[in-house]
Structure to design on (557 residues):
């Protein structure tokens, strides 16, 4: 209805009407509620429901601009009216001005990074501005307005913003596409100016502003000389988002981004320990030493003494007084030194695991706040009764199965350390141990019965001992026993050979010690020497030599 029309309705219903763009139920012109300036509406007990339009599905008013803000809202004149379940808002008007839809008036963002990318990475609320109607609703029909963007620093420093124009999308001004160019810790005021044209007559320029505080880049990024944040290159890391530093020798500093078709290698936030190393606190002699002090002092201005460069850089003062920062040379600051001074952590040398196989690597955080100066020897382990402290459990997250503690140098309960410093599970049962004890005890008793000070015990004494132990059996078959005792004087060949072996062990024990030593040395061949041994020899080492070593390790379980 145009402004010359009049509408009077009482006890009426406007239901299930459809419009392509605006005003599914009613579309009225000019200022609502102002008699003589537009469509005259007089309504009472009217129901407007289930109408459809892109914007203002129930009732849509077109306004002259500028519109006086003291005028009552369009629904005020309607008495006992019901507007509900209309698509595209129950009530809407044409564009009225520009407003911020989010409550915050300030926003933090790094220089040279899109607002939307930073907000998504940090889970912060992105500010939203829109061209709104009289109800403060975004004008969903507007996707053509071009808004001009300006940036001004609240201090004397220079600040810029990109892009300089934003195109409205369904009434919303896409502030997420903006990025500012300014120095760290600056406060920059961003002003958005949008021209708004009334469908009837008149126009205004809607304005909204936002204050942006410049913060550091995201971790894993650094700030270039052009004041633009960029991702670190492979082989570098950045924990603070200021400077990408070279990766320590014992760490990995690269990861893959993107899908399979567009994979890109980039740097990381924290170095990740390689296999065979264990990340831990740096030595205080380094952190509090002259080397670290020199790294921190290098970033200071030579005249003012103020830090003008990032950690790992040094300033170069030009003739015009301007300062340019460059990375410290490796001769003055190695990657390991920068890692120790900047992060207070070490990987190389101090924290090289005793056994490379024990430390699987992959952690980007330190394992423990305590140092290890002397790892346990191969035969030490945790007993079943020991309780592993929480810090030690956390310190074992990248250890091989069965290993715990600092440098992964200890074994879990029911595991035992081998001579190659790798923890292996204890045997499931100890029957072999009991059998070995019985055989060994029998052998000792036999030797005790045969040897007395290095001389054979007379056969008569053995017979007497046998008589005392088996007196009942001897009484019943006394004569037969005498014959058997008589035969003992003539030892069978096996018994005679055993006697000769025992005698030779006593007389020349060094020969048999050579055999034991061979077994011990043989068990270490495969783990000590990287030689392509023949398969037959390898099988012999595993079955004959290493088998006895494993049986002996079971004594510590």
């Amino acid at each position: 209805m145009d402004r010359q029309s009049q509408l009077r309705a009482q006890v009426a219903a406007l239901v299930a009407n459809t419009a392509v763009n605006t005003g599914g139920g009613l579309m009225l012109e000019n200022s609502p509620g102002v008699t003589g300036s537009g469509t005259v509406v007089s309504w009472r007990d009217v129901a407007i429901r289930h109408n459809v339009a892109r914007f203002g599905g129930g009732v849509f008013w077109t306004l002259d601009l500028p519109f006086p803000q003291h005028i009552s809202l369009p629904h005020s004149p309607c008495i006992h009216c019901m507007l509900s379940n209309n698509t595209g808002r129950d009530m809407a008007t044409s564009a009225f001005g520009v407003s911020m839809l989010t409550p915050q008036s300030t926003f933090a963002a790094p220089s040279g990074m899109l607002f939307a990318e930073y907000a998504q990475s940090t889970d912060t609320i992105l500010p939203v501005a829109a061209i709104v109607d009289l109800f403060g609703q975004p004008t969903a029909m507007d996707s053509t307005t071009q808004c001009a963007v300006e940036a001004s620093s609240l201090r004397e420093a220079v600040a810029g913003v990109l892009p300089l124009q934003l195109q409205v999308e369904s009434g919303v001004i896409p502030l997420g596409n903006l990025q500012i160019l300014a120095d760290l810790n600056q406060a920059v005021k961003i002003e958005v100016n949008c021209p708004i044209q009334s469908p009837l007559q008149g126009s205004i320029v809607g304005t909204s502003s936002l204050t942006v505080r410049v913060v550091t880049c995201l971790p894993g990024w650094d700030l270039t000389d052009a004041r633009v944040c960029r991702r670190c290159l492979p082989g570098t890391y950045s924990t603070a988002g200021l400077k990408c530093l070279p990766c320590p020798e014992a760490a990995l500093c690269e990861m893959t981004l993107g899908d399979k078709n567009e994979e890109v290698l980039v740097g990381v936030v924290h170095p990740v320990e390689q296999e065979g190393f264990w990340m831990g606190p740096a030595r205080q002699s380094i952190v509090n030493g002259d080397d670290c002090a020199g790294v921190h002092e290098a970033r200071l201005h030579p005249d003012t003494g103020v830090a003008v460069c990032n950690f790992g850089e040094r300033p170069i003062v030009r003739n015009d007084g301007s300062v340019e920062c460059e990375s410290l040379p490796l001769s003055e600051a190695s990657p390991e030194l920068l890692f120790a001074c900047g992060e207070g952590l070490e990987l190389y040398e101090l924290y090289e695991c005793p056994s490379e196989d024990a430390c699987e690597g992959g952690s980007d955080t330190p394992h423990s706040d305590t140092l290890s100066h002397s790892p346990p020897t191969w035969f030490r382990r945790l007993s079943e009764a020991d309780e592993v402290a929480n810090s030690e459990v956390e310190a074992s997250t990248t250890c091989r199965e069965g290993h715990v503690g600092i440098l992964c140098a200890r074994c879990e309960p029911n595991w035992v350390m081998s001579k190659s410093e790798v923890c292996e599970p204890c045997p499931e049962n100890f029957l072999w141990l009991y059998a070995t004890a019985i055989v060994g005890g029998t052998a000792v008793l036999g030797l005790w019965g045969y040897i007395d000070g290095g001389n054979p015990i007379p056969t008569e004494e053995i017979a007497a001992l046998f008589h005392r132990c088996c007196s009942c059996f001897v009484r019943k078959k006394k004569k037969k026993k005498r014959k058997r005792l008589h035969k003992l004087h003539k030892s069978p060949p096996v018994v005679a050979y055993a006697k000769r072996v025992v005698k030779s062990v006593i007389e020349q024990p060094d020969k048999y010690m050579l055999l034991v030593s061979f077994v011990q040395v043989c068990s270490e061949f495969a783990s000590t020497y990287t030689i392509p041994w023949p398969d037959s020899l390898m099988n012999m080492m595993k079955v004959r030599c290493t088998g006895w070593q494993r049986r002996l390790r079971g004594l510590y379980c």
